Each structure stands twice: as C-alpha cells, then as structure tokens.
Amino acid sequence: MTKKCTQCGKEFIIPDGAKAFKTCTQGNRNQQQKRKLKTIPRSEGLDEHLRELKEYNKQNHTHLSYGKFMALREEGLI
Length: 78
Fold this sequence. Notes:
With 78 residues, this protein is mostly helical. It folds into two domains: 2-37, no CATH class; 46-75, no CATH class. The protein has three helices and two strands.
C-alpha cells in the first residue's frame, strides 16, 4: 500500500501488517512529534487557560469543554 508523507509529500510504501505511518522516515516522524509538543508555550499555564475558558463561556453563554476551547483557539476561531 502506498501513502503520501504528511511532512515532505513523498509517496512511500507501507508493508502489510505494519502500523499505518503518516510520514516516510523516522526523522519526519520526530519532527511531527516535536511540533505537537510545542502547542502550549511554557509561559502560559493551565490556570490561565481555564480562567479564559470560564470567562468565554460566561460571556457567550456556552458550555465549551477545555479541549474544544483550545482547538477553536488554536484554529483562530476564538
């Protein structure tokens, strides 16, 4: 089975019975992991995010969960 790498765009072959990789090399997988870990800067804490979520829900009469709030914020919709 062939698949397109999410990092570099190359097509690569996935062996039968193997885990479904999204990247063609281990180096690209490492880069993808590092990008995931950089989502929240160290200077911002969980308490700050929860305070913002509470204020947002109160002002907009919503009941967003923390995960939904962070996803919308990351996409720039909030």
